[in-house]
Write a structure and sequence with these properties.
mainly beta; 3 domains; 4-stranded mixed β-sheet
């Protein structure tokens, strides 16, 4: 017994001397051994540096926005379209909008940087500019952006824009006392675009008939539209259905192209806010 007690005492002394050499030791809930306060501070600073590098990295900490954004993302032929061009420029002299040109199916946006560039600092800078497009015919457009830094326009980015077809009425919210004009517009997969044939109004259903011409059709996506004078209609919600008939088939093939709806109201309230001058004491 005396021998065993002595061995236990020697072992206890050995452990105490080891702790004194290593310094105060803590064991965390995660199994991490932190020997002293300085080591704890080093670990804390290292974690802060890693976190800072992660959040400040443009490729890791922040999602890269696309260079061209459109709103609405899926416009119809009655919607104005907002186009925003953005990015990260290598200097503080960031691009500004110069001009916009539309030659269907291409939409070209030109930007330029300030000239001369002597006052530009070599500091990466976020930039963006926005332009508005008038309502476009149904089609598949290609938006191309060029930036001129003084040596001529250079391609910057491009993206596709699909403008959907449908129906529209004028006025947009017609009343029973107004003559209504209906516009039908769609995109066809070839150049044989339909022409207006007839229309009829049955209760609250409006049917528009179009006729596709005979002959070979070039395989080029082509927008088409027809206008229909509906006259005056009663109050209520109306459904529009558009059909196309191919006459050179036996029997003729009639298919539904699309449709939509609108509402006729009793009266339309319009509010005007006159300019009120600011009264100064």
């Amino acid at each position: 017994m005396g021998r065993i007690a002595a061995d236990r005492l020697d072992l206890h002394d050995s452990l105490d001397s080891t702790r004194m050499e290593r310094g105060p030791e803590q064991i965390t809930d995660y199994g991490l051994h932190i020997t002293d306060g300085r080591t704890c501070m080093r670990i804390f600073l290292a974690l802060m540096l890693i976190l800072t590098a992660w959040t400040s990295s443009p490729d890791i900490g922040h999602a890269q926005e696309p260079p061209i954004q459109v709103f609405p993302s899926s416009p119809t032929f009655t919607d104005p379209v907002s186009v925003t061009v953005q990015g990260r420029w290598p200097t503080t002299c960031t691009p500004i909008l110069q001009k916009v040109s539309v030659a269907s199916p291409t939409i070209r946006i030109d930007g330029r940087t300030p000239v001369p560039p002597e006052g530009c600092s070599p500091m990466p800078t976020e930039w963006a500019f926005t332009t508005w497009l008038e309502p476009l015919a149904p089609n598949i457009y290609l938006i191309e952006v060029y930036i001129d830094e003084g040596a001529g326009p250079k391609p910057y980015a491009q993206r596709e824009l699909v403008v959907q077809g449908g129906i529209a009425v004028e006025p947009r919210m017609p009343t029973v006392d107004e003559t209504i004009q209906l516009t039908v517009a769609f995109l066809k997969g070839d150049a044989c675009i339909p022409a207006y044939e007839s229309h009829r109004v049955q209760a609250h259903l409006i049917t528009v008939e179009t006729l596709q011409p005979n002959g070979p059709c070039a395989q080029v996506p082509t927008p088409w539209s027809v206008r229909v004078d509906l006259g005056r209609l009663l109050v209520g919600a109306y459904t529009v259905e558009v059909y196309t008939t191919v006459a050179d088939t036996d029997p003729p093939q009639r298919s539904k192209v699309g449709g939509g709806g609108f509402r006729v109201v009793e009266r339309r309230y319009e509010y005007y806010f006159p300019f009120l001058p600011i009264m100064k004491p």
